[in-house]
Design a protein that fits this description.
- By secondary structure, the protein is an alpha/beta fold.
- It has two domains: 5-156, VC0802-like (2-Layer Sandwich), CATH 3.30.2130; 178-218 and 250-374, 3-Layer(aba) Sandwich (Rossmann fold), CATH 3.40.50.
- 29% of the residues lie in helices and 25% in strands.
- The protein contains nine helices and 15 strands.
- Strands 2-3-1-4-8-7-5-6 form an eight-stranded mixed β-sheet. A seven-stranded mixed β-sheet has the order 11-10-9-12-13-15-14, covered by helices on one side.
- Helix 8 (264-276) links the parallel strand 10 and strand 11.
- It is elongated.
- The model has no long low-confidence stretch (mean pLDDT 93).
Length: 381
């Protein structure tokens, strides 16, 4: 698989432009942005690099077959016509994921089952035996995507979602997805250019992603496995060379990265996750109430946080968001303050006018990433 081929990187809504920029910097060509996905062209080295280094990709897929189907029988027949011996041998295990946006099909698990049946039946007819299904760690993972009657089957080179970086062992009630954390940091313009603070850091995900961006560490350098490592044509020497190249691009970072949380349990979880990411020498976390804090760093401060939403963690909305605005206004002059919230109604209580509003989704919750420029002197509100 050394020649150029087409790949699809899946992402979250609102992060497509960021992913386009990431893939361009990695050397991808023929980049085409879609909704929650970016298509691009590259070789095997780029396939490995995209999995290792892309901060805003959820999966890297390789499309292998496209067809039309408007009912389950047509789907089954089309899948069975594909020569699966190229990818799946009877002694191999496989699994299938499905995503559907169609008026013809409405159950992703059923589509995955029909696709599996077609593959198994072909193998049994051809070899007299069948490959087994292994959901947790299969030799080959396939992905079928159906939009109306357009069906695309792809090889999944990533395996488990790329948001599972490998460092987060402990979480809170409502942890932020690592891909979303990296995405909102990049949307906010964070590149490690000044001091950084997350004043409601929870289990530390935003802090860790901020540090990895600042140091230019590849997003998945702590991950233990990618699906492509089980492929017949996996090139371990090439993978190690790509990983080494990515790790050698680490940059110095002369500023501080700090986190607060009012909950001591969260502080302990954040410190453990930071240690798992090998970033304890870069990130400091303290038990502290943001509303009693003030800016202590000289020069500019980049502040980004994901406060609790009252849908998930009980808070007194009016008072809580008023306190956020008052704390920023009175104690954080000279700060680029960014807040992600899924409580859109509560924003009116902040009492500050955002200079930017960006629509994203935190899981199923429609959210906004907002920027409040807290100027030193009289310009802040």
């Amino acid at each position: 698989m050394r020649e150029q081929f087409t790949m699809t990187a899946k992402t979250l809504f609102g992060l497509e432009e960021i992913l386009v920029d990431e893939l361009s910097k990695l050397g991808a060509s023929n980049i085409v942005k879609g909704t929650r996905m970016v298509q691009f062209t590259g070789n095997t080295a780029l396939l490995y690099k995209a999995n290792i280094a892309c901060r805003t990709a959820i999966k890297i897929l390789i499309p292998i077959h496209h067809f039309k189907a408007s009912n389950e029988n047509v789907l089954y027949d089309a899948v069975k016509k594909i020569d699966w011996s190229t990818w799946i041998q009877p002694n191999k295990t496989f699994a299938i994921d499905a995503t559907i946006a169609s008026d013809y099909f409405n159950h992703s698990k059923y589509i995955a089952l029909k696709t599996k049946d077609a593959i198994v039946d072909q193998c049994r007819e051809k070899f007299g035996t069948r490959p087994n299904i292994e959901l947790q760690s299969p030799d080959i993972r396939l992905h079928i995507h159906i939009h109306q009657d357009d069906c695309t089957i792809s090889l999944d080179s990533s395996g488990t979602s790329l948001h599972q970086r490998g460092y987060r062992k402990a979480t809170n009630i409502a942890p932020i997805n690592e891909v979303l954390a990296a995405g909102i940091l990049l949307l906010s313009g964070w590149q490690g250019q000044c001091h950084f603070l997350d004043p409601m850091c929870g289990s530390g995900t935003i802090l860790i992603e901020a540090a990895m961006i600042a140091l230019n560490l590849p997003a998945n350098c702590n991950r233990t496995e990618f699906a492509f490592e089980r492929w017949e044509d996996y090139d371990n020497q090439l993978f190690e060379a790509v990983l080494e190249e990515c790790m050698q691009q680490r940059k110095p970072f002369p500023y501080s990265i700090q986190g607060f949380d009012i909950d001591i349990s969260s502080v302990h979880k954040a410190k453990n996750n930071i240690a798992n990411a090998n970033l304890s020498d870069v990130i400091r976390v303290d038990m502290n109430d943001f509303f009693d804090s003030k800016k202590t760093q000289d020069g500019e401060l980049h502040l980004l946080f994901n406060p609790p939403y009252d849908e998930r963690i009980g808070i007194k909305t009016t008072e809580f968001y008023e306190d956020i605005g008052n704390t920023l206004k009175h104690h954080y002059a000279g700060t680029h303050a960014w807040m992600l919230t899924g409580n859109l109604e509560a924003l009116k209580y902040v009492g500050l006018k955002p200079s930017r509003k960006i629509k994203v989704f935190n899981g199923a919750i429609e959210a906004r990433l907002l920027n409040y420029e807290m100027y030193a002197g009289k310009k802040h509100q």
